[in-house]
Amino acid sequence: MKKVIIALTITVLIATVAISITHYYSVKILSSSRAYTNFESQYSKGEKDASRHLISYIYSHDEIDYLYYQTDISIPKGDIIALKALKAGQDPRLARLGFLMGGNHPDDLPKLIWFFQHFKNESFFRSAISTWQQADMLVEQLNTIGPVTYKYMHSGKPVDQEDLILQINTISDNLTIKQQNFSALLGATSRMVDHYVFLIDMITSIIILGCSALLAGVMLSKLHTSQKVIMDQNLALNAMNERINKFAYTVTHDLWAPISSMTGLVSVLEREKDINQIPSYTQMMRESLAVQDKYIHEVLDTIQNQNEKKDDEVCNLAEIVHDMISQNGYFAQGKKVKFLSELEVWELKCNIADIKVVFNNLISNAIKYADFSKPEQWIKVKSYRKDQQCIIEIEDNGLGIKPEQKGSIFNKFFKSGINKKSKGLGLYFTKQAIEEMNGTIAVKSLLGIGTSFIVSLPL
């Protein structure tokens, strides 16, 4: 892709430079052609005026007419000097002097010389130079007739006026033809330059437009690819942020529940008067801390291996339930939680981290929403097989859920309003964990009676 962009860019730059060079030289050639057209005009006018004044002198014998003739004939004679200097490759200053004598503008002199030097060997200009030389020969004939006529008439010798005038007119007519041919060749040169400039412009314009279109297509494709990469990265970052948020909540939530239980155990210990019972309480604390130590190591292992995709493993539901009971053995008020376990399915192939999130959230929820107005608070954990599914039920006799809230309890940030410390994320992450294991969760609840969460996971 990068090489294609560089190649197209270089092609556009080369084509642009080609257009610039072409236009520079085309303007220079056309400007030189215009200078030669002006040169031809001055040349023709000088010759015509010289012929006219020489004929007037033959009739009038007036010296002023002859002086006018000499002045006018010097114009084409100057161009003769310039041509001879250019053909001989002499000092360009001599050619400049000749062109100045020919009545050409000083600004046109470099153009006249440059054009001759660069195109003297080209067929179209060789023809023009040949015509120029033939015209110069005719001018030299006219220049010969003038002094001879003046000499004869000035000495009083008779001259054949009709014959002289015929010679002069013949020379003038032939010069007119040569001048027209010269102009026609210059016109053809200008048209040829226009034609080739047009062709070059068309070709280079097509190249530039084509390369620009390809370059734009490549850039748009690259931009589209970049946008797609950025969108994919944003999606990946959002997913990562979601995982981080979930992970952070899960860790804090899973640590908060046993801390609450430990707080209740400390309350019991503080009220215990029988010193012989203290070791049993400290042993329970030690067991709970051991479970937390194990959990923290699992968290560290998860962080260390977060880029490695773990396959499902065989989870021992009895061990997981035992750990959950150890972590959540007491209410925050110091009252012991009564757990009932009815496990028919003991092993399940699943993600152990996700299944612990499920048990910990559902059990801690049952503890948080216990109904202390009842004589006894209990939580029942059941597992059994149904078709090809493992059904896990976590039931309690707590406060229950209001009928109008059942459809919202799995929504993110939903709070029932009873527990002020709740963040409204526990059941949301629980449902996510179950769905990641291709399972489902349902709830049955009666207000004031209790709640039962039914989890279905594939065996």
Structural write-up:
Helix 1 runs antiparallel to helix 6. The protein is 68% helix and 10% strand. The protein has 459 residues and is α+β, with helices and mostly antiparallel strands. It has 2 domains: 220 residues; 130 residues, Histidine kinase-like ATPase, C-terminal domain (Heat Shock Protein 90, 2-Layer Sandwich), CATH 3.30.565.10. Strands 2-4-5-7-6 form a 5-stranded mixed β-sheet, with helices on one face. It has 10 helices and 7 strands. The model has no long low-confidence stretch (mean pLDDT 85).
Tell me the fraction of residues in β-strands, as a range. Answer: 5-15%
Shape: rod-shaped
DSSP E strands, number: 7
Number of domains: 2
Helical fraction equals 55-70%
Element-level helix/strand string: HHHHHHHEHEEHEEHEE
| Overall pLDDT level | 85
Helix-strand category: alpha+beta
| Spatial arrangement of strands, main beta sheet | 2-4-5-7-6
Largest sheet: 5 strands, mixed
What distance separates the N and C termini?
50 Å
Low-pLDDT sequence parts = none
Per DSSP, the total helix count is 10
Helices and strands in order:
Layout (H helix, E strand, L loop, with lengths): L1 H59 L2 H25 L4 H10 L7 H11 L3 H32 L6 H111 L6 H27 L8 E4 H11 L10 E6 L3 E4 L1 H17 L9 E9 L2 E8 L29 H11 L3 E7 L3 E9 L1
Parallel strand pairs: 2-4
Antiparallel strand pairs: 1-3, 4-5, 5-7, 6-7
